[in-house]
Amino acid sequence: MLMSQVPATDRPRERLAERGTDALGDRELLALLISTGVRGKGAHEVAEGLLDRFGSLTAIGRATVAELSAVAGIGTAKASSLVAGFELARRAEQTERPRRLRATTDIAAVARSLLSHHNRERLIVISCDAALRILGTDRLSDGAADQTLFPLREIIVAVLRRDGRSFALAHNHPSGDTTPTPEDVSATQAAIDAAALTGLGFLDHVIVTEKEWEAVPVSR
User: Fold this and answer.
1) d(CA 139, CA 141)
2) Could you read off the pLDDT of 32-60 as tens digits, one per residue?
3) Which burial class, exposed, middle or buried, applies to 97 when counting CB atoms under 10 A from its CB (0-12, 13-18, 19+)?
């Protein structure tokens, strides 16, 4: 059924205005973001196609513009709107991130807000001043689904560029398993050695997933 055939009191936009977001299901919220359908298919049906293709809102939120555009009824414009909408939601959550790294849990909180939704491994460095206040985060590399690159020179340069005095590293494991690999451990030890050579403090290296995190064990 096209939206024009639905009684006004049952339309998502009207129910959203009158009763709030709790009155709408996932498909209806997606339909509002999509806004319009295509010939012979309303926005609700296009939204249903998205859910069928990706299986969940989480998976849709991870998808790229190209992946979303491959779904019938979703062109580049609609796909871009969806990607932007999910990214805004993530950034809104990031306002609650710690502003100072007092413990490894703070590193994990920052990292999860930036990394947990990605389906490829991504490495970030979190630079801090002498009081462990966060100066900024930098993305250093995008790897495969099960491997991350650790460019030591770029790590140090990113921290020094922000006039940092110490730093933490974090990357995600899209597999959902936070267990550090031997490569994670050796790369972390190399980062510790590089920090010592340049007079920087190394705080920790954490691996995050959507629900968990784990610090990489190293010898100091």
Assistant:
1) 6
2) 888 888 887 888 889 999 999 999 888 89
3) middle
Residue 10 buriedness (CB in 10 A; 0-12 / 13-18 / 19+) = exposed
Calpha distance 126→65 (Å, rounded)? 28
> How far is 171 from 140, CA to CA, in rounded Å?
10
> Do residue 10 and residue 64 come from a single domain?
yes
149-177, pLDDT tens digit by residue?
789 999 999 999 999 999 999 999 988 99
Closest CA to 44 of 63, 64, 19, 24: 24
Supply the pTM of this predicted model. 0.63
Strand duo 166-172 + 122-128: pairing? antiparallel
Question: How far, in Å, CA of 76 to CA of 20, rounded?
Answer: 29
Domain range holding 77?
3-93
- Gap between the Cα atoms of 135 and 132, Å rounded: 9
Instruction: State which of 37, 71, 93 marks the end of a domain.
Output: 93
Verify that 9 and 81 share a domain, yes or no. yes
